[in-house]
């Protein structure tokens, strides 16, 4: 099925990716200024995967994210000031400022949260899909996970259940080439990695994660399939993280030539060039859009920094179900 991407959608995808890039730059500054407790893992470079995937979802479709998950939260529609607030430990944040970068959750956007447990998003999304099926809704669940999850048992258990029960779940592997400081190809058997889906008779596709339109089209087919009750899809998007594993990583394990090659395939530049070439936008319009978004994100970051710190009385909240 060919999915048409109209002008409005293409601009929405562009806007989404620029917002995430600007957001992550602010987070980098916050961490460097000592404002963000714990670690932060930036999504810059991978924007096309989150934005192209989530553009296919309704507000009540579930996502489950990973430790590099700010971009997913932004794309799903969370308020960026509250996201910043959570990351720097301020009370108006999504987890009352107690969770930080890897413990953001937003029930209003059906976001089951960022997650410090590598692979944690896989059973969460599979469970949400089971719940949608049992409740007979048309909701779909997306699990975002890194290539580091390709060798984890929980992935195989979840794929088995999802296939067996035809669950409406889309497995989205963001293959950014590294698990912490190790090249994934050095530690992972079974090529292409999409075969992991095929083993369970799940349609599996490997596609370009630097091309937001390609991501959009592949996920669109998977979401239609899930909504029609035909079960899961396993997608692997090849992408790249521009930053280190977490902010502060010197990245001396990266090969300069490879870095330049991936940067030359930047998803924002790629879509921007296509929009200009197809006369859907002028270069000037795109530059002013970039500036406008960057300024809006900076205002949100500033507002978050002025917010109050967590309240000690909130300590026990959200620990037990009401
Ligand atoms: C279950 C578990 N094992 C190990 C870790 C430590 N750890 C944190 S991030 C990470 C690498 C994950 O790599 P990948 O899934 O490829 O994601 P990326 O960081 O490349 O985006 C590891 C091993 C963890 N948080 N959870």
Structure description:
With 322 residues, the protein is of the alpha/beta class. It has a single domain (7-307), classed as 3-Layer(aba) Sandwich (Rossmann fold), CATH 3.40.50. 44% of the residues lie in helices and 10% in strands. The strands form two sheets. A five-stranded parallel beta sheet has the order 1-2-3-7-6, with helices on both faces. It has a two-stranded antiparallel ribbon with strand order 4-5. The longest helix is centred in the N-terminal third of the chain and has 26 residues, at 7-32. The N and C termini lie far apart (45 Å). The model has no long low-confidence stretch (mean pLDDT 96). Bound molecules: thiamine diphosphate. Residues 41, 67-68, 116-119, 146-149, 176, 178-180, 245 line the site of thiamine diphosphate.
In short:
Strand 6 (204-208), helix 9 (212-227) and strand 7 (233-238) form a beta-alpha-beta unit. 44% of the residues lie in helices and 10% in strands.
């Amino acid at each position: 099925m060919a999915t048409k991407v109209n002008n409005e959608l293409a601009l929405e995808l562009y806007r989404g990716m620029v917002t995430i890039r600007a957001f992550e730059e602010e987070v980098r500054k916050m961490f460097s200024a000592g404002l963000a407790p714990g670690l932060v893992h930036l999504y810059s470079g991978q924007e096309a995967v989150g934005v192209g995937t989530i553009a296919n979802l309704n507000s009540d479709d579930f996502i489950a994210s990973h430790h590099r998950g700010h971009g997913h939260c932004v794309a799903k529609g969370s308020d960026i000031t509250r996201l910043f607030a959570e990351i720097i430990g301020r009370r108006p944040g999504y987890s009352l400022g107690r969770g930080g970068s890897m413990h953001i959750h937003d029930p209003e956007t059906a976001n089951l949260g960022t997650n410090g447990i590598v692979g944690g998003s896989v059973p969460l999304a599979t469970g949400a899909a089971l719940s949608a099926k049992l409740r007979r809704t048309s909701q779909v669940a997306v699990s975002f996970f890194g290539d580091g999850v390709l060798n984890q048992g929980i992935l195989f258990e979840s794929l088995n259940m999802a296939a067996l029960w035809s669950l409406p779940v889309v497995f989205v592997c963001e293959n950014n080439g590294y698990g912490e400081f190790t090249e994934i190809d050095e530690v992972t058997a079974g090529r292409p990695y999409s075969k992991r889906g095929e083993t369970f008779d799940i349609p599996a596709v490997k596609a370009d994660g630097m091309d937001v339109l390609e991501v959009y089209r592949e996920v669109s087919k998977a979401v239609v399939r899930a909504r029609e009750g035909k079960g899961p899809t396993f997608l692997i998007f090849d992408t790249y993280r521009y930053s280190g594993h977490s902010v502060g990583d010197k990245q001396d394990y990266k090969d300069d030539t490879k870095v330049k090659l991936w940067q030359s395939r930047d998803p924002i530049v790629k879509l921007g060039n296509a929009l200009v070439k197809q006369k859907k936008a002028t270069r000037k319009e795109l530059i002013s859009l970039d500036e406008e978004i960057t300024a809006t994100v900076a205002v949100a970051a500033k507002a978050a920094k002025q917010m109050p710190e967590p309240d000690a009385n909130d300590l026990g909240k959200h620990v037990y179900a009401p």
